[in-house]
Design a protein that fits this description.
alpha+beta, two-stranded antiparallel sheet
C-alpha cells in the first residue's frame, strides 16, 4: 500500500505540473478534509470533433485524483500532505517538455559553410592547438601526481681503478723503521634500492586526487575555450557579411557619384554650370573612391584575421554570403532553457564548475597541510656491494655484499612554524574560493536573465528593421515604375537604391546582433550545440 501510495503521490504532482504547462489554473483545495468530494468537477461529455489538450488532461487528472483518494492512507497531519501535493517537481516536466538548443537558430544553421569551418577549427585553429597542449600537460601532471603512490627504484654502479700508497712513520728511537707500501686496486661498488610508501596519512592519495581534478579542470577549460572561439568566429563571420554588404554599397555609391560627375562635366562643357557648381560633385566622387578603397582594405584585413583565427589556408569570396537572411524568433525555447538553468542547484557553467573543482583541491591541500608534521612510513628493500682494503696492502683487500629490507620512519618534528602557516594560508584560500563561488552563482543567474532580456530587445529591434527593409524595397519598386513612366529621374532611383542598401545593412546588423546574443546566452547556460563537435579526450 505504501508503494502504491507513493506512486500515486508522484503522479498527482506530475498532474499539477503538466496542468500548469498546458495553461490550466489550479486552485488548492483541502481534499484531505473533504475526501468524500471530488477535487474537480466531473468532465462533461464532449460533443465536438476536436478537443484541447487541457480538456484531455482534465479527464486524466480526475482519474488520478480518484485513485489517490481511494488508495490514500490515513495521515496524522492532513495539511502537511496537502502541501506536499502542491510541491511541484518542475524539473521533471521541464526535462520532458523543454526543447533543446537545436530549436534555437544560430549562424551555422543559416550558413552551412560556417558550420564546416567551426568543425574544422577544433583541429586547425592555433588557439585550439595550444588548448590541446594544455590537455597534454594536464595528463602528464596527473601521471606525476599518481607516481607518488608507486614504488621507486634507485640503482648506482661505479668502476674505480686506484693507485694507493700507505706510509708507516715511527717517531722516537727507531726512525729507520719507517716504511711505505704502494699497490693498485680495482673496485666495482653498486647499490640497488626499492622504496615503497606504506603509510602517509592519505597525503599521497590526496595528491593523486588533486592531479585527477586538475585534469578535469583542463578538459572543462578546453571545451569552454572552444566555445569562446566558436562565438568569436560566429561574430567575425557575421561581421564579414556586413562588411561585404557595406563594400557593395560603397561601390554602388561610387558608380552613382561618377555618373553624377559625368553629367556635371557634360554640363560644364556646354557652359550650363560653372566650376564652382561642379566642385561638390568632384568632391563626392573622390570621397566615394576613398570609401571604396578603405572598405576593401578593411574587408581584406577582416578576412585575413578570420582565416588566421579559424586556422584556414584561405577563405574564398563566394564562401561569404551577401547578406544575413531573415531570422525567425521564438521565445519559448529560450524561456524554458532559462527556467531550467535557474532551477539547478549548482550552476553548470565551466567557470562555476572550475571553482567547485578548485574547492575540492583546497580541501585536499588543507588535509595534507594538517598532516605535514606527522610521521611517515616507507618500506625499503635493497642490495649493495663495496670493496675495502687492508692497511697492509696487496692481497689483503676484501668486499662486503649486503641485502637488506625494512621500514623507515621519517618524522619532521619542528619546521619553524612553517606547517602552521601553510594550514592557515590554505584555509584562507578556501574561504576565498567559497566567497567567489557564491558571487559567481548569483552573477550567472543574473547574467542569464539579463541576456534573455537583451535577446528580446534585439528580436524586437530586428523586427523593426525587417519591416523598414520591406518598406524600402517596396518603395524602390514604386520608384522604378515611376521612372519607367518618366515621373522619376535616374538619380532618384539610384538614391532610393542607396536607401535600400542602408536598410539592408541595418537589418543585417540587427539580425547579427540577435544571433550573437543568442550564442552568448547558450554559452552561459552551457547548452551550445557546437560543443558536440568535441570528442571526449
Amino acid at each position: 500500500m505504501v508503494t502504491h501510495y507513493s506512486l500515486i503521490k508522484k503522479l498527482s504532482r506530475m498532474s499539477l505540473a503538466i496542468r500548469r504547462a498546458v495553461g490550466g489554473t489550479f486552485f488548492c483545495r483541502d481534499f484531505c478534509d473533504r475526501a468524500e468530494k471530488p477535487l474537480l468537477p466531473p468532465a462533461e461529455p464532449i460533443h465536438r470533433s476536436s478537443i484541447s489538450p487541457y480538456e484531455i488532461w482534465h479527464v486524466i487528472e480526475n482519474f488520478l485524483i480518484a485513485k489517490a483518494l481511494s488508495l490514500r492512507r490515513a495521515v496524522q497531519h492532513p495539511m502537511k500532505f496537502c502541501r506536499s501535493f502542491l510541491a511541484v517537481p518542475f524539473m521533471i516536466v521541464s526535462v520532458w517538455a523543454a526543447p533543446g538548443a537545436n530549436e534555437v537558430v544560430l549562424p551555422e544553421n543559416i550558413f552551412p559553410q560556417l558550420d564546416s569551418i567551426l568543425k574544422s577549427a577544433v583541429q586547425q585553429s592555433p588557439r585550439m592547438l595550444n588548448r590541446a597542449l594544455d590537455l597534454e600537460i594536464a595528463e602528464n601532471s596527473r601521471i606525476q601526481a599518481r607516481a607518488n603512490l608507486l614504488p621507486s627504484v634507485n640503482a648506482s654502479y661505479s668502476y674505480i681503478k686506484s693507485n694507493d700508497t700507505t706510509k708507516y712513520l715511527y717517531s722516537g728511537a727507531n726512525p729507520g723503521s719507517n716504511s711505505s707500501n704502494t699497490y693498485s686496486l680495482t673496485k666495482t661498488p653498486y647499490s640497488v634500492t626499492l622504496s615503497q610508501p606504506v603509510f602517509q596519512w592519505g597525503v599521497l592519495r590526496n595528491l593523486d586526487q588533486i592531479g585527477a581534478i586538475q585534469q578535469m579542470i583542463a578538459k572543462g577549460q578546453y571545451k569552454d575555450g572552444y566555445r569562446q572561439l566558436v562565438q568569436e568566429l560566429r561574430a567575425s563571420y557575421l561581421h564579414l557579411i556586413l562588411q561585404k554588404l557595406t563594400l557593395k554599397r560603397a561601390r554602388f555609391y561610387l558608380e552613382y557619384t561618377n555618373s553624377q560627375l559625368k553629367q556635371q562635366e557634360d554640363r560644364l562643357l556646354k557652359k550650363e554650370i560653372s566650376d564652382a557648381q561642379i566642385f561638390t560633385a568632384r568632391l563626392a566622387s573622390e570621397q566615394g573612391q576613398i570609401a571604396v578603397e578603405r572598405t576593401e582594405f578593411d574587408f581584406a584585413n577582416a578576412v585575413a584575421s578570420f582565416t588566421r583565427l579559424a586556422g584556414l589556408a584561405a577563405l574564398p569570396n563566394e564562401a561569404i554570403p551577401d547578406s544575413v537572411p531573415t531570422v525567425a524568433y521564438d521565445d519559448a525555447p529560450i524561456g524554458q532553457m532559462l527556467a531550467g538553468f535557474l532551477t539547478q542547484k549548482d550552476p553548470p557553467s565551466i567557470e562555476a564548475s572550475t571553482l567547485r573543482q578548485q574547492l575540492k583541491i583546497e580541501n585536499l591541500n588543507y588535509a595534507n597541510a594538517k598532516k605535514r608534521l606527522w610521521p611517515k612510513v616507507n618500506a625499503n628493500i635493497g642490495m649493495s656491494q663495496d670493496q675495502q682494503n687492508n692497511l697492509y696492502g696487496k692481497g689483503l683487500d676484501y668486499s662486503v655484499a649486503s641485502v637488506y629490507g625494512g621500514l623507515a620512519v621519517n618524522w619532521a618534528i619542528f619546521d619553524g612554524f612553517y606547517s602552521g602557516a601553510v594550514v592557515r594560508s590554505t584555509l584562507a584560500h578556501r574561504r576565498q574560493l567559497e566567497n567567489d563561488y557564491r558571487q559567481i552563482s548569483e552573477r550567472l543567474a543574473q547574467d542569464a536573465q539579463t541576456q534573455v532580456k537583451l535577446i528580446n530587445f534585439a528580436a524586437r529591434n530586428m523586427s523593426i528593421y525587417d519591416r523598414l527593409l520591406v518598406s524600402s524595397a517596396g518603395y524602390l519598386v514604386t520608384v522604378r515604375d515611376e521612372f519607367r513612366r518618366g515621373v522619376k529621374s535616374d538619380a532618384e532611383v539610384s538614391q532610393m537604391q542607396l536607401n535600400v542598401f542602408d536598410a539592408e545593412i541595418n537589418a543585417s546588423t540587427a539580425r547579427s546582433d540577435y544571433l550573437t546574443k543568442v550564442g552568448d546566452f547558450l554559452g552561459t547556460v552551457v547548452n551550445d550545440p557546437v560543443l558536440a563537435n568535441i570528442t571526449d579526450k
